[in-house]
Write a structure and sequence with these properties.
This protein has eight helices and seven strands; from the N terminus they run H-H-H-E-H-E-H-E-H-E-H-E-H-E-E. The chain is α/β, with parallel strands linked by helices. It has a single domain, classed as Vaccinia Virus protein VP39 (Rossmann fold), CATH 3.40.50.150. Strand 6 and strand 7 form a beta hairpin. The two termini are 32 Å apart. The protein has a seven-stranded mixed sheet with strand order 3-2-1-4-5-7-6, with helices on both faces. The structure holds calcium ion. Calcium ion (CA) binds next to loops.
Length: 219
């Protein structure tokens, strides 16, 4: 899983033990995903707690996720939503999301999940074309980093006033703050951080949790 790169292991373990209150099925999914070759793509459990907190705070019934992987974040959101809540999950991988689908079924939340396999930009554009603008309570961006600016613009259009957009990996192990690092993903993350910071349509806060997560409230 993604961990807070700047926290000593002992402190990280303390956060997990006393600050997350992780449902058992999420812990099981986290254990299974830890054996996956791309396990670092999963969010940290304390981020799942933040997402569940946001769902409760917003009374969210309509959520959106870009980047589903094995389903930890979408399951966290679905568990916190009422029975009539839904989450649109965008991912390109049928293989990874098979694990997600198994856990959604085991958790009894499969009816809340609207999985769309395909490039997320196309899915988001289709939602906008269908009149879904300003209809989502919560959006979570955690997919291919070089497309973050594209995802951001669409999520600002899709989230309602008062809703929240959460953006993962905004610190990128600290590389965004090191001008010597100029690979494609780091440059894109730096760019989206600047876009968000200057975007008057939202009130943002960058949290140094895990690999960095920005929360932005849509105005
Ligand atoms: Ca991530």
């Amino acid at each position: 899983m993604s961990k807070s790169f700047h926290l000593p292991d002992q402190v990280q373990a303390y956060v997990l033990a006393h600050g997350v209150r992780e449902p058992a099925i999420l812990a099981r999914l986290r254990d299974e995903t830890a054996r996956h070759p791309r396990a670092q793509m999963q969010i940290a459990p304390e981020q799942g707690a933040v997402l569940r907190f946001l769902v409760e705070l917003l009374n969210a019934r309509r959520c959106l996720e870009i980047g589903t992987f094995t389903g930890y974040s979408s399951l966290a959101v679905a568990l916190a939503m009422p029975d009539d809540g839904t989450i649109v999950c965008c991912d390109v991988s049928d293989e990874y999301t098979q694990i997600a689908r198994r856990y959604w079924a085991d958790a009894g939340v499969a009816h809340k999940m609207d999985l769309r396999i395909g490039p997320a930009v196309e899915t988001l554009d289709a939602l906008l074309a269908d009149g879904a603008g300003a209809s989502f309570d919560l959006a979570f961006i955690d997919a291919d980093k070089h497309r973050y600016p594209d995802y951001w613009e669409r999520c600002v259009a899709l989230v309602r006033p008062g809703g929240v957009i959460a953006v993962d990996n905004v610190l990128w192990s600290g590389d965004v703050a090191d001008p010597a690092v100029t690979d494609r993903d780091t440059v894109a993350l730096r760019r989206v951080n600047e876009i968000i910071d200057g975007d008057e349509r939202v009130t943002p806060v960058m949290l140094s949790i895990a690999d960095g997560m920005t929360l932005a409230r849509r105005r």
